[in-house]
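User: My advisor asked me to double-check a structure prediction for Aminopeptidase N before group meeting. I don't want to rely on an old file, so could you generate it fresh from this sequence?
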Amino acid sequence: PQTIYLKDYTPPAWLVDTVDLDVSIEADGTVVSATQTLRRNPAVADQPLVLDGEELETLAVSVDGREHPYLASATSLTLNDLPASCTLRTVVRIQPDNNTRLSGMYRSKDGYFTQCEAQGFRRITWFMDRPDVMSTYTVTLHADRATFPVLLANGNPVASGDEANGRHWATWADPFRKPAYLFALVAGKLDVLRDTFRTASGREVQLAIYVEPGKLDQCPHAMAALKKSMKWDEERFGLECDLDHYMIVAVGDFNMGAMENKGLNIFNTKYVLARPDVATDVDFENIDRVVAHEYFHNWTGNRVTCRDWFQLSLKEGLTVFRDQEFGADLHNRQTARIREVRGLRAAQFPEDAGPMAHPIRPESFVEINNFYTATVYEKGAEVIRMIQTLIGRDAFRAGMDEYFRRHDGQAVTCEDFVAAMAAASGFDFTQFMRWYRQPGTPRIAADGFWDADSASYTLTLSQSNPRASDDAPYLIPVRVALFAADGRLLPGSERLLQLSASSQSFVFENVAEEPVPSLLRDFSAPVYLDFDDTPEQLTVLLAHESDPFNAWEAGQRLATRLILAASTEIAAGRTPVWPASFVDAARQLLQSHAERGAAFVAEALTLPGETTLAELISVVDPDALHAARNSLSRHLAEQLENEFAGLYASLTVSEAYTPSSEHAGRRALRNLCLSYLVEFDGEAVRELAFKQFREADNMTDQFAALAALANINAADCRQRDSALAEFYARWQDEALVVDKWLQVQSTSRRPDTLATVKALTAHPAFDLGNPNKIYALIRAFGANLVRFNAADGSGYAFMAEQILALHDRNPQVASRLARCFDRWKKFDAGRQAHAQAALRRVRDHQGLSRDVLEVVTRALG
Ligand code: HT7
Ligand code: ZN
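Assistant: Sure, here is a fresh prediction for Aminopeptidase N from the sequence you gave:
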């Protein structure tokens, strides 16, 4: 397959001012008539008109009302000898009922839906399907009235009416120019929740959330999230909603989380539907974040869009940063940051060290859908955060204002964004641009020296990035502070250092005692930090650091060292010994929950994940690592049994359920206590978990109890079997809850997990046509480090089979499964041989989809 390069970008030869679509949904397919008004781009030399298309049956082509010769291939339509401006009409038939890729127009249970990012519009009609072609759209839909009573498209409703044979039609007009990837339509039988929002300038926006019939009682949280997002964007960035109608439609079959189509967002049901008995605290919070994310795209992505797909992080990194800030303001800033970094380390750091590593602005791709990655999104957000850290919040806001002043209505590049920030702040970002151009996670090595005579502390920071193409240094913001051994913050020691050289020393004066340095506070840059801090220093920070992120980080560093050392011991056949100081620190944390907040304490007592830990080891022994982490959990459970049991009893939330951060924090800590208590398996704790499972009045507590039971290793556990069976029996008609049931089994640490997962692929609840089911059962299994990477290669063989079963049907989702192999080279020779064989089997499959081929080729390369 062809590789596309950023360096080859050229502007479009033709511009499309208006697009008129007539879409008729019929029994033998959908007929799409498209009328485009075209003119040559005056900035580009004359070229034929070349339109993109995929799986289109061409019925007619005319120019200015007359037939015009054209050259059609499977993926392009070329017209020569066109006047400088003209009207092109094409008529095609498409088959949305057979569209299993969920890109373009497709059928789902309750109707027809579209997904056009990145290149789905070409599956609907012939078009220059690239984000720098921006047009004004008018859309008329026709369909059977009884089956598809709701007809929606972007923008405002213009007119509607009945037709012969029980059919009806509706016309929508979107007043804003937009790229084709923001086009959407929906035709279905759906219920609607309506509301309104009055903007700061007094305009009333009509809000609507459309869902599967019968699910209206699961919509109010998403509606509230939408209104909060609208208000927040006005207050924080001065950005008002520009639309008269803002609609969200939820669909159960969707490849990703949600899509920001102008005025007509289409969402995975997972990020809309919530009710306390079916959604967890985490689900409620994710809905807030995703609803906000898509709404924020209306400015960062839609009003100002990307020139080309290499600039994806321009909209995604910035919009993730905005949704993170919203989430932090709405919930709990401290734990939000901790979770962001936990996620970054679990997904983006491994990606940046593996075969799919790429800069946040990639320089080439084979299939753009493979680049909707943790790097483009999450590392992209970290890069935006660093810009704000370097210039300050006020200058960042001024930079955003300048960005919109310069580029509203345009399709632009990452450089354009940074130039606006530079203009507003006067800051020189030349060196900083390296963050956009290099893959890999930089490392900072830190070394401190306290000189008693001069009462000064010299901190030397050196940077490196073995994945970068050269040795040039990054500009890295490093927040630091110094603490006394008794935990006092040393006055005047809080600084933002700008590390710009390969190695640089920073001197702190008036430091009268040997300090405890706290580096990279609030995770001021997405880097690895190598610093030989002592356990005593880390214990001081865990107890006293006023930056909650770095307090948490100190605990993670302590636990990481212990687990990694224990993993080596276990691999060598020895039993690990755990220091009493760690247990004491954990005890103090538990005792401080009232002052420090239950949510924080829950985060601090959650041990680093196996995937994150594996990145720190050169040759990973997944069994030893798993055993080491479990052993530390069990040790804490044994040593702190009374504390865990006491807190479990006292932290009950007696008020009616709300997903507030305060209640959610209490539930998180209580459920963490339960997970420690079941480490200590026995009839009493099994009964305790089972009682919680049965009596819980909310999904957070019910699911936490189910997860605790599902992890019990013993072959026979009556409570585990009953809980799993009862859970399915009760929730089998709630698709999103069934996903939880699948996932809790595929992520179990039990040795028979692969057998369970295999059996579940034949269960009526599993459906290869539904991405959520695949993610819950198959991809989640791929993230189960110890079971997926089984020494006999059975996990790899299973995954290869699933990829091949899916690649043709849904290449995007199959390709996400293929990413489970990213880190195969980190394991021993035996595992590597099995993984390589599985990857080769996939690669050599005849007719393998381009999406999967790119991933497995890079993995094998
Ligand atoms: N901008 C949206 C991306 C998206 C997407 C991309 C490829 C294939 C399917 C997709 N569904 C949604 C999502 C977002 O970042 O908001
Ligand atoms: Zn996005």
